[in-house]
Amino acid sequence: MKISYECGPCFLRQAREAMDLSTGDELLKMELMEDIFEFLHDNFKLGANSNSTGSAMHNMIKQKTGCRDPYHKEKIEGNEIALKYLPDVKKILENDDSLENYVKIAIIGNILDFGAFTLDDDIESVIKDSLKKDLVIKDIEEFEESLKTNDNVLYLVDNTGEIVFDKLLLAKIKEYGLNITIAVKSEPILNDACMEEALDAGLDEFGEIVEIGAGTVGYVDSEISDEFRKIFDAHRFIISKGMGNYEGLTEIDLSEKEIYFLLCSKCGTISKDIGVNLHDMLLFKK
Question: How many distinct structural domains can be found in the chain?
């Protein structure tokens, strides 16, 4: 996906937040912000890739501060919030164990995104409100048909915290008899799930966990490893969680894939691109 003018303030907000999480050195943060202004001056332009631009900016911050995982504490907080609400969502599934409800709850987990919300947002209230909402786009019949007619699925996870809710959908998918491959980031970026967090959450109970070979914001096709490219190419059926993966995957040819996007639209640019409202929850086939 290409950047829009709205991405500019978002990049700067994320930069400030990541710097504050990485270091208390005010002079270093000033130097970094100067570097980021220079970088955006050279690279923030019509036609630029949003994921590549954001990834480069975050890597600048990590390299200059020496902080490999700025969002480490926030990832722990995300898991704690998800675990707090897990009993509530399990009660919902006890009353209605439809596939649509499992999908809805997995998408609600996508709200736990500190790249889209600020650290001061009342995320818990957002989750409570979202539990009451319906999916705006729900290609549920096509999705279930894909579950019934495929032997394998590649599940691209998104955020730590969110993966706690993903486990419920993964368990439902297993009921259809599919072999599941679960893809995570190779290096920390924002609060995205890496191998350590995926194993801690117990995702390996549902399938093989593989790394994409990069630590990028969302999916960046030019950055994935040769090993993961073979895995990606071998899968016809793909489930993609979150905005970052949507932004990256819509940049490549998916005509031979059965790919479903599960996300909560948390920014104006993506909402306009898909044709939905801010905070709408979606399951759609691309």
Answer: 2
Q: Would you say residue 205 lies in a domain?
A: yes
Read off the CATH number of the domain in which 274 is found: 3.40.50.10880
| Residues spanned by the domain of 21 | 7-65
Instruction: Give this prediction's pTM.
Output: 0.92
Dump the DSSP string for 59-126. Answer: HHHHHHH--S-TTHHHHHHHHHHHHHHHHHHHHHHHH---HHHHHHHHHHHTT--TTTS-TTS-HHHH
Do residues 93 and 51 share a domain?
Answer: no
CB count within 10 Å of CB 279 equals 15
Taking only the tens place, the pLDDT of each residue in 78-90 is 888 788 888 888 8
How much is the pLDDT for 86?
Answer: 83
Distance CA 279, CA 135 (A): 10
